[in-house]
Amino acid sequence: MRCVLLALLVGIALVGVSMRAQQYPSDEEVNTVATGIDLSGEWTPVREEDNTGNTELGDWVGIPMNEAARLRAMAWVASIQTLPEWQCRPHAVSYISRGPSQLRISKEVDPVSRQVTAWHMEWLRSIDKAVYMDGRPHPSANAPHTWGGFSTGQWIGDMLRIETTHIKEEYLKRDGVFHSDRIRVNQFLIRRGNYLTFILVEYDPVYLTEPLVRSTEYQLDAHQNIPPYPCNVVEEVDRPRGIVPHNLPGTQQYVDDVKDFANRYNIPWDVITAGAETMYPEIQAKITAGRAKK
Amino acid sequence: MNKILLACAALAACFAARLIADQSRAAPASGDDLEILPVHGSIYMIAGAGGNIAVSAGKDGVLLVDTGTAENADKVLAAVQRLQRQLQMQAPAVDLRWGAETRGTLQNSLNPYAPVKPIRYIINTHAHADHTGGNLRLAKSGRTFTGGNVSGDIADAGQGAAILAYENVLNRMSAPTGSQAPSPEGAWPTDTFHQESMKLSHFFNGDGVQIIHIADGHTDGDSIVYFRGSDVIAAGDLFLMTTYPIIDVDRGGTINGVIEGLNRILDIVIPEFRMEGGTMVVPGHGRLSDGGDLAYYRDMVTIIRDRIQAMIKKGMTLDQIKAAKPTADYDPRWAAASGPASAAGFVEAAYKTLMPKPAAKPTTTTKKKSQG
Fold this sequence. Notes:
The structure holds 2 protein chains of 2 kinds.
Chain A: H1 2-23, H2 27-34, E1 41-46, H3 67-75, E2 103-109, E3 116-123, E4 129-132, E5 150-156, E6 159-165, E7 170-173, E8 177-179, E9 184-192, E10 195-203, E11 212-220, H4 252-264, H5 269-272, H6 283-293
Parallel strand pairs in A: 4-5
Antiparallel strand pairs in A: 1-2, 1-11, 2-3, 3-4, 5-6, 6-9, 7-8, 9-10, 10-11
Chain B: H1 2-26, E1 35-40, E2 43-47, E3 53-58, E4 61-65, H2 73-90, E5 119-123, H3 129-132, H4 135-141, E6 162-166, H5 167-173, E7 191-193, E8 197-199, E9 209-214, E10 222-227, E11 232-240, H6 255-268, E12 280-285, E13 289-290, H7 291-313, H8 318-324, H9 331-334, H10 343-354
Parallel strand pairs in B: 4-5, 5-6, 6-7, 11-12
Antiparallel strand pairs in B: 1-2, 2-3, 3-4, 8-9, 9-10, 10-11, 12-13
Helix pairs in contact in B: 2-4, 6-7, 7-10
């Protein structure tokens, strides 16, 4: 009989342990809030070769665009930004760290445990990007998408890995190179003293053939204050209701606009349109060969 | 030996009990596989029952915009009631913190056991079966408001939920006397309108509810439903987050009507902040959206329409236009694999509705001889 009782106790204990494991976060989850370093502060971008500021029309090098993305960029005209719906569009999380903007990182702290439960990031002309560290799951596929997306973070040693989903469709470069709302962005933040390396790895099954990897360097600036970015929608262009500006395929503008960059820098058109190939050093040979052919 | 066997049996029983408990959590009860998303205020979105369903739930009962497919009707009903019980748990029906000598607040904890309020209204955005299929079952389960000029004349007017729609929805779901109707009579709209819009005669769960007809868009019977307090628009199939617009040409749909509908919704939308949030839009299919998503969709449909229109002006045939791939830049995101929402299907529907209509031949009248 004692054996039976013992077995019952073992069984109940095992069931209890299993239930308890479902109620409380795992050790791994707890570690996401307990480790890492402080990222909070005012950060200013450092200009270097990988962050050259504003783009030029038709500059698609370094972007693993597919044919659909290229066709869409060719139809794009800047005048579309004057539509009321787009005048105050912020830069989405997929682009903003590439823009020439300062960055403020602040932290949300649990008043009881004093652990960081979320990081908040804001740039000029962006909205608050929260990075949750409390182990919450990402929303369902039916949930709305935002410019900031939905982000969760995890420490890998002192590097913060952020996974962002639920991002609205937006530009990868401000010359008509778009990503879709199916994009997923991983970010890696590495702090080394007063420097912060911000790496983006972007996966878009719609418009990118390979992950797009970009990085930005920031430097701590204790005197910085991000200026406000007020924006009011006005009637910028007097046009009939329902007009959406774009270049029609086959028109002269459709070709001229996008070839401006290629012509100015003497870059062969087949290089401009080479997509993922333009991310790798071997593209230099193609540029040389193309120029020689001319 | 018997003791060992008995111990093993007890252990097995413990694990079996655990397994059953796990399975009972995993196996969804009716309606559990439908997703309920909070939208704004009193409005929720049910996904997974066919077309999306916008739900107004609260103290007045339930109003549904569309009802999903017929086969999912019971699940929808279960999901609606699950939502209502959750709301009842959150908000006690009556605040009893007075009259302490005779009334205790403990009663509030029993509120979740009160029967849920019925479905009062169903509004159909159009006639397709993935949006009206649940009409019969869900309307039958409900009970509409009656009063004033209705209750005195019609004894059974309160039986079942009222079904509201634009007149053409009734025309599409019913049939002339003697013909077989595509839908059972109990699924037909009970209240229709012919004008540009119709308003519910009173607030419902705190919302003024406006039904706005969009002419010749997805079909010739489209409506959008605007909940003015909660600031939510149910767009029906004028706006999809899954594919290109499906233009039902045989039932009066046109690409220009779709674009007009999208612009009309954008006219109403006010973003909370920088084209995000604010007025929320429940699309006919796909994820919950806002004005930013809608504007991108409007841009895409307009740009493709302009391209096809320009090709028609050049004299290109449908086959030539299809071969020119005017949708190529949007296909990876919006083209369905086949059918009317595929690239070819969308181009064909747009082409058919953009082609100038042949001029009507002048009718020749023959003078009848006088019989006198």
